[in-house]
Design brief:
The complex is a heterodimer.
Chain A: H1 16-30, E1 37-42, E2 63-68, E3 74-76, E4 79-81, H2 87-95, H3 103-111, H4 114-123, E5 137-142, H5 148-169, H6 174-178, H7 185-195, E6 202-205
Parallel strand pairs in A: 2-5, 5-6
Antiparallel strand pairs in A: 2-3, 3-4
Helix pairs in contact in A: 2-5, 5-7
Chain B: H1 2-5, H2 19-33, E1 49-50, E2 54-55, E3 62-68, H3 73-76, E4 81-84, E5 87-89, H4 94-103, E6 114-119, H5 125-137, E7 142-146, E8 148-149
The chains are: A alpha/beta, B alpha/beta.
Amino acid sequence: MARKNRPTAEIPNGSMADIAFLLLIFFLVTTTIANDKGIAMLLPPKPDPNQPPPEVTKNDRNIFKILANSQDRLLVEDEPLEDVSSLREMVKTFILNFGNPGEEGVQIYNSLPGSMKSYVSSYGRRIDYSDDPTEAVVSFKADRGTSYDLYVQVLDQVNAAYNEVYGERVGISANEFLQLDKDDPVQERKYFAARDGIPRAISIAEPNKIAN
Amino acid sequence: MPKFGKKSNTSQDIPTAALPDIIFMLLFFFMVTTVLRETDIMVKQKLPKAAQLTKLERKSLVSYIYIGEPKQSSLFGKEPKIQVNDVFVEVNEIVQFVNQEKDKLNEAERDQITMSMKVDVDSKMGIVSDVQQELREANARKILYSSIQTSSNI
């Protein structure tokens, strides 16, 4: 016997949108679209135990030495340095020195835009700085007691110097150089044109085993 | 002017029947993209500030190493510790961790693994360079010093 007046079996769906909105707002608030940024570095390969450590054959003038001690004091090219932010200009002058360029160095010099050539002739050509950009190496040695903050700041300055050089070569700023998208063929070509011949030679020396 | 005075016969209601569907679609999008933080960071994390930052290109290739003073200093002491995946590890366990992370990747991509170092500013270089030596040992050479973008001074 079928009963009459049965209540409707439908679920009211008028407030469905409201419920969905509530959930939507929850996820909107909790979402962190993670954008992890940082200073990229490539560590050297692990030393081969069967081979003696390679001897440094580079001329002393081709190595830009930065030392940091446990009191966070810097020694740059054997001179104490107080202001970290002045490193960038020093490194840039060091890379673009062209003191005694080899064949490749001359080629790179000729490929530079005019503004950089005049930069070289007004600040460069020092005998105690690098022969040419292909030879230049920036060496950074931190003590075990150096703060990580200083370490990152120094790396930041050295990278800024390189990015400025790269950017200027293709007529853009250091920030624009960093934002070049390597998936876009036009920008990729720009990137490689900027990097061509000038390696980002940053050497991180192993700290001493004993803190001093 | 009859041309402008003419009343339009079209209904002016926006159909709202599909509204729940649209909202659900947005909801699913955010549900899928949300990463509820998978690890509980147990060390202090005040990242350094820097200007010359690069973005990570492929997130799937990235593993994280957290270094800093433990938050619960009464339990773990005040010395900076290394944390990977929810646990504190010693320096000599890093190689094992890297190998585990590498096993999760395709064989062709294993060399491209990037280690993102999230190091507290108050840490010293000693522990960081110890970790780096281990990373060299484990052949995970691409690293990223995770930092916060400052308004660039260039």
